[in-house]
Amino acid sequence: MSTGLREYLDGPHKAVRDVVRDGLAANAGLLNAGLDLSRDEYRDQVLAVMQQVTAEGHTGRGFPKEFGGQGDLGGFIAGFETLAFGDLSLMVKAGVQFGLFAGAILHLGTSRHHEQYLTDAIDGHLLGCFAMTETGHGSNVQALGTTATYDPATEEFVVHTPNAAARKDYIGNAARHGRMAAVFAQLVVGGETHGVHCLLVPIRTPDGESMPGVTLSDCGPKLGLNGVDNGRIVFDHVRVPRTALLDRYAQVDAEGTYSSEIENPDRRFFTMLGTLVQGRVSVGGAAINASKVALTIAIRYADRRRQFSAPGSAEEALLLDYRMHQRRLLPLLARTYALHFAQAELVDEFVRIFGSDGTDNTEGNTDGEGGLGDRDEHDRRALEAQAAGTKSLGTWHATETIQMCREACGGAGYLAENRLAALKADTDVFTTFEGDNTVLLQLVAKGLLTNYRESFGKLDPLGTARFIAAQAVEIAVEKTALRTVVERLRDAVPNRNDTADPDAGLRDDAYHCGMVRFREEHMLAGVARRLKKGIDAGDDAFEVFNRCQDHVIAAGRAHVERVVLEAFLAAVQAAPEGPVRDRLKELYDLHALATIEAERAWYIEHGRLSGQRSKAITALVNELCAAVRPHADELVEAFGVPGAAVDVPMVVPSQHE
Amino acid sequence: MSTGLREYLDGPHKAVRDVVRDGLAANAGLLNAGLDLSRDEYRDQVLAVMQQVTAEGHTGRGFPKEFGGQGDLGGFIAGFETLAFGDLSLMVKAGVQFGLFAGAILHLGTSRHHEQYLTDAIDGHLLGCFAMTETGHGSNVQALGTTATYDPATEEFVVHTPNAAARKDYIGNAARHGRMAAVFAQLVVGGETHGVHCLLVPIRTPDGESMPGVTLSDCGPKLGLNGVDNGRIVFDHVRVPRTALLDRYAQVDAEGTYSSEIENPDRRFFTMLGTLVQGRVSVGGAAINASKVALTIAIRYADRRRQFSAPGSAEEALLLDYRMHQRRLLPLLARTYALHFAQAELVDEFVRIFGSDGTDNTEGNTDGEGGLGDRDEHDRRALEAQAAGTKSLGTWHATETIQMCREACGGAGYLAENRLAALKADTDVFTTFEGDNTVLLQLVAKGLLTNYRESFGKLDPLGTARFIAAQAVEIAVEKTALRTVVERLRDAVPNRNDTADPDAGLRDDAYHCGMVRFREEHMLAGVARRLKKGIDAGDDAFEVFNRCQDHVIAAGRAHVERVVLEAFLAAVQAAPEGPVRDRLKELYDLHALATIEAERAWYIEHGRLSGQRSKAITALVNELCAAVRPHADELVEAFGVPGAAVDVPMVVPSQHE
Predict the structure, then answer these.
(1) What confidence score (pLDDT) does residue B641 get?
(2) Where would I find the Acyl-CoA dehydrogenase/oxidase N-terminal domain in this sequence (chains A, B) (predicted)?
(3) Rounded to whole angstroms, what are the CA distances from B166 to A318, A335, A656, B386, B443?
């Protein structure tokens, strides 16, 4: 059965996933390299493996054929996700080089940049950085302090770090290997600031010396990912030619005239940033796959390790036969499947919008102002929200799952040789990078509140309140619409508080979907109402927003939970009939009911669940854990994690003695 | 204010705490030693600092004066807890040497062992291991596989590892420094096995060579605590003299006659193990103090770092002014205070029972069978449950709090220089060692169910079910008693579901205590009822237990939550009137309501909370976060964590540039 299930999980990019699996198995030595090498040796070994993989031609998969790529963006993402089965420093290093650095050139540059740099970036000859984050600014990218001031006398930009807070920080590839950086800076032309733009700035000579005016330093040891050389960059009036500006969305001519086809600066900024959504798509997928590695290890261990003997039995009981152990691991297993399918749906949508070679399906389909047409703009914002949401839930899931797996393996889980330590340490920052999860969920909620209108395009959460003030009438309309939706749902999902049988319909997928949809819509309507009320009362905009920030974030999360659940259900329905679908349906039920159980207080508070029915759900989650348990080994087998990553001493002692 | 608060927190052992604080400040270099030294160098440096501290005479504080100690057990624990403000490898190494190894000699040995070894163990000349855990057995100590077989021909014990599962594993001090081990093994005398006993076995020569028949190996790198040399020990028919047996509770004479004043083998085993409760007391306190370090860093960072500007303000808002940030950090701050006072209460009780020099206040007060008298036996079991519960909640709290602090500090929190990385990695195993938390909570629940009766003394969770079968009548009686309690509580805590004002009485401490006590009693009665029902139906005992294992653990947890809440309330009531008490009362309210909020689903399900009142509690938690926020800096200042541990670059950049 696990073969059929694995094929179904691997989906259309199975071949790429298998290539990466083979590559990881061939480079299994890297899995333990972080343990005994010095930090710089480990970094160099990660680079060496990356360059070897590059030489085999895999890393250009997502790029246009004319620059040495293969025009297969979906395969590229699938391959990247699969890298998360191996050493995560290698994955992150590759993400920095091919996703972020080469991606910025592809998406923000024009043919001149593509021709000059893309082939070298894709084949790893030109190692680069993505220099966005600063010491003083992470989430609020619009407030970056680095400046790039145009000097028409020499036709150069002067890149400068005006203060300590504007220092580029945590930049992958900066401490040791990067030779060039895609630098995000406030563009100043003719004394006027035009907001954040991106320029290519050489930071090291081929010999590894810092370029004049560039001060590079090392972020030093980190909790994990120590095979990646994160560093800091300070610019002291560094001059680069005018052509260094990645000028797809805005140009500066020789005389110093700034122009952009997108007139609204906010809209321009978010259009540029939007092209970089691939990073979030990739990190979410990587986090979900890292969870699979941890679960494979912990579930196999629990299916072998015994503790405490049952009465009348000489043999102790298997850990996985204990209810508490099932409760700790199996709902997380079900949720990993759910997120897997939600991620697959996201990647499909990403490829649909960006095209199979990553160069935009929307090219030429503009609004006559240089921006995207309305429909494409809408699709882009929807994709960004979907990527932000999946990234948030996927990365928090990884943190929770790997922690639980470590605890479930006791002291053995704490030893580096059993790999949970590295998984835990390496993935921990996933909840932060490519967007802090709490900020991302605000972005999700904001998108829902405004129906993705361009006038609401600021990441700044305070913009929410200001916008609401301006759109009070429209919000009122939306509220009415929502109320209708809620009433419709109420009819579709009969309140069973009075039913004699509290179990009735608990495994009915229409019930699950109705519940999570009700929660999403209700929370969203509540946020809109509270925002409007505060604005109507003339309260301070920050106060209005801040008073319901927790509610905003919870609403964003409720939306993503609904999307994930529906993706899982769709995957169950599309699965081959027979054991594969049966197994998935069981896991789906466990995931759906565990999701409702986790928010049962809210459902009861809002009259959607009686206390009795709530208890019935808890009992059914327990039953479903017991039903899934006999298949647990097969279910992790189906993830197809290479043996080198999971055949650790505590699971397969014989291989190590 | 923070001075008064700090004095109140420091309590009677303030002087000792200050001595340790000064010592940590003087050895601040150790805080970063783990980052760049090799593993062995780091281990040696930890040993060097430990020996220096030992030379200053601090480590013997808890031991009898005749062996170089100071007879101040409370001060010893306070000092140990305070070590958690510094490098945690040092703390754990000291815990292994002085708490576990020297503790085993003190509690399980007799005068011959005390005179021969205790002074050397206390002054650090004799480095030792506590060799209990095996590869195949952690929580189930009674099933250890190592054997110690008496050979009357030579008057020796033969210590042996019969199979791979019986290998001693994760043993601190074993990989590099330990010269002797307190080895727990099945004692075999005259062909009869008498259960687990402890013997002193030399494992290394003074030159560091393994003793003949002893194979030592290294557990290798770990997620954290890499300054501690955890290793493995395999014995191949190693001979030690008869006097190597720590024979306080059982003796073997020259001819090979085994005798013990405690006839029941289970009771003997748990009496021996019970003397080692100090480890759990210490780890819980250390975890709570590690949480203080993380909160000090994260709250000071949040009170300095700005992000996103408020409308009409040029300056961005402080992280700590965002509701979500308050929500993430401040209930954890309040809970840290609660656990601090619960821990202080536990230490007082520990010292009351063990005496100020650790040699038992109960000596001579026996039951005539060599065991403890009934009252002392009851107090011991209660102390063990209290220690197990506080350890569980304290260590899970540390894991959660440090994780949240890391995320709240974003990318900066991921850098080793900001110390959250080490705190996270080092404390992670606290939920496992000195007893896995889930197993410990079962121990707590078991104690409550049986009113600490000796006949229910097996750690084996399956014993629960067997016992219940034998005691069915008594359980029925207890149920009746419980029902009375529950009814009494119901009267004392009016159900306010119908009250017009859902906020009424929410800050009344009698309400909080009534709620948590109701939950505890109700859950416990439910467990008893379910166990009895299964046994009455003749179901398989493992099944009966396993079906409500999650319920058993939740009941144990509910009990500890109640104890913690009451300890905090008692501390508020005993605090000096004025700002100290006011501040504590506010934190107490936040803790109490956040605790009820976390379980609000249960309270609603059981008719103790209406949906409306539940929402009012959530709103009040938000308000209390806002009320605590202006004092947050002062509240972490009062923990008195030495500057060297918390003045990290992201908080105090000027000191590092």
Answers:
(1) 98
(2) 13-124
(3) 18, 37, 17, 30, 24
Binary contact (A411, B170; C-beta < 8 A): yes
All residue ranges of chain B with pLDDT < 70 are 1, 310-312, 360-372, 450-500, 655-657
Tell me the one-letter amino acid at B289: N
Band the pLDDT of A527: cuts 50, 70, 90. confident
Would you give the distance in Å from CA A107 to the centre of its chain? 19
Contact A1, A579 (CB under 8 A): yes
- Helix, strand or coil, per DSSP, at residue A617: helix
| pLDDT higher than 60, residue A352 | yes
Cβ contact A233:A215 at 8 Å: yes
**Cα(A221)–Cα(A39) distance, integer angstroms:** 8
Q: pLDDT tens across A56-88, in order? A: 878 889 999 988 889 999 999 999 999 999 999
Q: What is the pLDDT of residue A499?
A: 52
The answer to whether A35 contacts B310, with C-beta atoms less than 8 Å apart, is: no
Span B595-647, pLDDT tens digits: 999 999 999 999 999 999 999 999 999 999 999 999 999 999 999 999 999 99
Integer CA distances (angstroms), B124 to A645, B226, B629, in order? 41, 20, 45
Residue entry with tokens 């030159």: B207
ipTM of the complex as predicted: 0.93
**Minimal C-alpha gap between B308 and chain A (Å):** 6
Place of tokens 């028919």: B237
Task: For residue B438, give the nearest of A324, A462, A607 by CB distance.
Answer: A324
Dihedral sign for Cα B620, B621, B626, B628, please. Answer: positive
A549/chain B closest Cα distance in angstroms: 6
For A422, name the nearest residue in chain B, comparing CA atoms only.
B223
Q: Distance (Å) from the C-alpha of residue A281 to the closest C-alpha of chain B?
A: 19
CA distance B617 to A547: 15
* B222 DSSP assignment: B
**Share of residues in chain A with pLDDT > 90 (%):** 74
Burial of B595 (C-beta count, 10 Å sphere; 0-12/13-18/19+): buried
How close does chain B come to A553, measured CA to CA in Å?
A: 9
With tokens 């590695």, the residue in question is A293
Dihedral sign, CA of B165, B167, B173, B175? Answer: negative
Q: What is the pLDDT of residue A374?
A: 72
- Residues from chain A contacting residue B309 (CB–CB below 8 Å): 143, 460, 462
Provide the shortest C-alpha distance from residue B411 to chain A (in Å): 6
Give me A168's structure tokens.
């580029």
* Upper half-sphere CA count for residue A73 (Cβ side, 13 Å): 25
Distance CA A588, CA B34 (A): 45
Structure tokens at A72: 């297969």
Task: Name all domains of chain B by residue range, CATH numbers in brackets.
Answer: 2-122 (1.10.540.10), 128-274 (2.40.110.10), 278-637 (1.20.140.10)
- The residue among A133, A223, A540 with the most chain B CBs within 10 A of its CB, best to mutate, is A223
Contacts of A465 in chain B (CB under 8 A): 311
Q: What is the dihedral of CA B618, B620, B624, B625, to 10 degrees?
A: 30
CA distance A591 to A628: 11
When CB atoms are compared, the residue of A138, A307, A541 closest to B411 is A138
The DSSP letter of residue A371 is S
**Nearest residue in chain B measured CA to CA from A324:** B550
What are the structure tokens assigned to B108, written together? 């399980």
> Residue A99 contacts by C-beta under 8 Å, 6 or more apart in sequence?
A80, A278, A279, A282
The model's pLDDT over A474-509, given as tens digits with 9 standing for 90+, comes to 433 344 444 444 444 444 454 444 455 777 899 999
Report phi then psi at B259, rounded to 5: -145, 150
Locate the chain B residue with the closest alpha carbon to A308: B140
Q: Report residue A138 as tokens.
A: 């992470």
